Amino acid sequence: MIGGIDPVEIKRHLHIARSAPDTDAQGKAYEALALYLFENIPGCLAERDGVSFFRSEQIDLGVCNGRHQDGLHALPPVILVECKNWSHPVDSSTLGYFINILANRCVETGILIAANGITGDSHEYTNANALGVSAMARGIKVLVITTEEIEALTCTADFVELLLRRFLLAYMRGGVGVP
Predict the structure, then answer these.
(1) SS3 at position 161
(2) What is the signed CA dihedral for 88, 58, 95, 40, rounded to 10 degrees?
(3) Backbone phi, then psi, for 119, in 5-degree steps?
(4) Residue 86: how many CB atoms within 10 A of its CB?
(5) In this structure, are residues 135 and 101 in contact, taking their beta carbons and an 8 Å threshold?
(6) Does the model's pTM come out above 0.85?
(7) What is the CA radius of gyration of the chain?
(8) Do 20 and 29 touch, CB atoms closer than 8 A?
(9) pLDDT of 146 over the 60 cut
(10) What's the rounded Cα separation, in Å, for the pair 99 and 69?
């Protein structure tokens, strides 16, 4: 951990993501924010832009979780992160594709940083929220984090607590950890 998460740095990253000239640059800036957040969690190392051997799948961020007591101690040692800086919620097909990437790599936890969350109702299990049930049956949990939640972070401990609570909700609700 370098110095911990700084709200000013979060705002800087989000400003770059919002004002980038095109959607590709906006997405890369959003990924840079995710990298910043995870590299400031004790015990975590992160790498960007992982591409599968046949170049058929791409992962925005891979996180090696050393399970530090002040970090993500309850989460598994490898976490994959997908970032979607979209103006609308992420749909079922996009979330399903991410779940399949997790399954193809035998990764049990993925984090979807979706600017505006996912489609459907988390209590009614509709649209993208419905995919949690089949994901959980495959041993996969997806934690969903929004831009609004990232903007509210004041320190690293806030982010760690958010992720741990979302992980718990994924177990409790059946696969997708959303508020």
Answers:
(1) helix
(2) -80
(3) -75, 155
(4) 17
(5) no
(6) yes
(7) 15
(8) yes
(9) yes
(10) 28
